[in-house]
Structure formats: C-alpha cells, structure tokens
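Section 4.2 – Deliverable D4.2 (structural model, holo form)

The reporting period included a commitment to supply a predicted holo structure for the target in complex with pyridoxal-5'-phosphate. Inputs used:
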Amino acid sequence: MNRDAVEFRQAARQAVDWIAAYLEDPRRFPVVPPMEPGDLLRALPSCAPEEGEPLQEILADFHRSILPAVTHWNHPRFLAYFAISASGAGVLGELLAAAINANGMLWQTSPAGTELEQVTLGWLRRWLHLPEDFFGIIFDTASVSTFHAIAAARQQAAPEVRSEGGGAALTLYCSEHAHSSVDKAAIALGIGLRNVRKIAVDAEFRMRPDLLEEAVAADRRNGRRPFCVVATVGTTSTTSVDPVRDIVDVAQRHGLWLHVDAAYAGAAAILPEYRHILDGAERADSIVVNPHKWLLTPLDLSAFYTRRPEVLREAFALVPEYLRTAEDARAIHFMDYGLPLGRRFRALKLWFVMRHFGRRGIERVLRSHIAMAQELARWIDADERFERVAPVPFSVVCFRLKGPDEANRRLLEQVNATGQAFLSHTVLHGRFVLRIAVGNLGTTEADLREVWRLVQEKAQALS
Ligand code: PLP
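Output (structure tokens):
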C-alpha cells in the first residue's frame, strides 16, 4: 500500500471514531462557543502552508482550534431557528458521496447520482402523498428551490424575459410571514422588491385568501401582471400553515403559479394525522420540503417538486455542444432543470436516512418532537409570568416574559450565555418573542425540563 493510503486509513479511522463518539454525546461541548468575532481568524495563520502537512497534525489542529469555535447544531439543547440532526446514517452517506466525488450534471457523468435522486425523491413523494406526476430535483437549500419555482413561474407568465430581459409589472404574492428567500428570489430574478405583495395574516399568522384575491384583482385592474403566489406550510417565525386549498383556488382563478414553501413542516405530512397540512398542495405547481430541516439528513438537501418540469426546463436548459451525449433522448440530465451545472451526489445521504429509519422510525421521531413541544407549551401556560404568543402546530413554541421587550432580550442573552442551551427569537405584533424549536434526534423531555427551569431561573433573577 502506498504511504498516502496508509496515512489516510489511519486518520480516517480516527475521524470516524471521533464522529461516532461525537454523535453519541455532543453534550460534552457548550451549545454555543464562548468566543468573540475574529477569535478564530486571529488564531490561524494568514497564509496556507508551502509544504504539505501530515493528516495527524491537521486532525490535531481540528480538535485544538476548530472545534472550540463550533456552534453545535447536533447538541440536544440546540433549540434555535429550526433545530436539526445529522443522523449517523446521513453522515455515512455524505462521507461516501464525498469519496465518490461524482458530478451529476449529466446522466452519463453520474448514472447512480441521477437515478438515485429519482428513486429517493419518488419515495419521499409517496411518503408525502404528493401526486405521481410531480417531478423531483434536489437543490442545496430551500432558498434555491424557491428561486427555481419563481423562475419557472416567470417563464410561464412571461417567456420573452428569457431572451429579452425585462418583465416589467410582474407581481408576486406571499404572506407577510413568508421566508425572506421569496424576497431574495425577487431581487435575483429582477422582479424587484417593490413588486412583492405581502398579504396580511389572520390571528393565527395564516395568509388571508380574501386579501390575496383583492390584491390580485386590484393589480390586474391597474394593468400589472400577477404571476406567482407563494404559500407557506410552517412559517419561519411561528410555523403557521397558510390555507393552501383556498390559496390554490385564487391562484387558479387568476392563472398564477402556486409554489408551496413547506421547507420545515412538510416533513410532518408523513404522519397520517398531519397529512392534511398539505391539502391543496396536490394542485400546486411546485413545492419545497427540506430533508435537512426535519428529516434527519445532514445539510444540505432540499427536495423540490414541480408538476411542470417542462417549464422549469424551458427556463434553464442551455446545452453547449460539449455537454451533448448519446443518452440525451433517453435520460434526465438534471443540469437542464436549474441554475447549477455541477451537482453533488446528495441523494446518497437521503437514501441512507430513509432506509435506516424507515417511515415508522421517522414517524416516531416527528411525533416525539411534536409531543415534547406541546408539553413545553403546557408548562409555559402554567406559569403566569409568561405568555405564549402563537399556537403550536408542530415542534416550535413562541413565548415571552410578560413585560417590556428589553427584559425578553436580556433573558435570551442570559440563557444563551450559559452555553447550556441555545434559543432564538422573533418579533410578533411588534414585540420581541422567544422561540424554542425541537428538532434534534437526541433531545429528551428532561432536556426541555432543564431548559425551561433555566429560563424560569433567569427570569426570576431579572425581576
Ligand atoms: N422557507 C422557510 C419556511 C424557512 O423557515 C427557511 C429557513 O429556515 C427557508 C425557507 C430557507 O431554508 P434554507 O436555509 O434551506 O434556504
């Protein structure tokens, strides 16, 4: 065996042993590292080495310098944003995909990548009860999936924009609680932020279809070109669910593309008792669900489905001669359906995760997260110093200390500064609100009890 292979084998064994111990017990680390911006920058050399270094030394520096600067998303008390899990099965898929290093731009350049993407997204589509004719493609993030949805919507409404540019007066609709990726897509696609209509929500933060109807009709009367609506199933702040069925009715009445952003909560539709959250999505033009959010798959993997792949292809296909192949008529080339040419073998990790957990295993995890969040909501409701400020349809709880925003801000800072838990915040009705999101495989009810005790203790000290 050559010396490089011997060295790799030894270092790789150590790294895998470390990964196994880490995933088993990430609690050894503070959730958020006690460091200041620039600390790691100052600790590392400003120039790369001239001569190569042994893997052992690099591994040692990983432990010495890099790990202390990591925020541990794998920590069971990481309860901020949407908490996630890198399951062992998913990490294994990622490791093997990195080793294979296939670029799946064409079928020929990665038959396994292309066809496993079709297989795994077919499995997921069935788990989500989406129609068989929904075409699936993997992107890195929901932001990029939504960008492609809006690009396809524009292609449908104004095909001339592809060659001529422009597209003046094209108008896009979403709720005031939609994710900022909708705005970013509007910026990137030249729609313009001024042409994104933020539709008001009801008392439970759901888009009001009557106001959507009014806004579209008014824009039409004023000579504008409504072209796309984005409905959200599981909004970022409160996980509210827009009434997709009613929104589809409006969209279809006006011939608009309907995209459903179910990046986080879509996973819950795997549960029979939550299947209804995607009611109406079967009539949508596209939908995004992120397995890297609540389906135990390591970052990054976003599943994008559309019933109109031909429109997506019209928007993006551009094949130079050197990328033409003998299989063009018989195979899918995923590069034709999106912006990236190069594509990682992401489907491998999803395949590992879906097979290792199975539908039943995933259902157990989702149900336990939802049950824990609901139990936490009950504890909060029982403490009169606090108020809960949104329903808890999934695994996220929004609450605040009764009183000024400043006290809530300090409460959040003080809890997070302990390194024992990491919570995040949002603003609802103009008020600062704390958010606890359950989404990690290792989180237990005892963790939540401990975190809630910590919040209560810090709140007591503040008062
Ligand atoms: N959509 C929703 C509802 C989200 O909450 C988020 C992120 O939290 C996104 C889209 C963007 O996800 P990504 O980070 O995969 O781009």
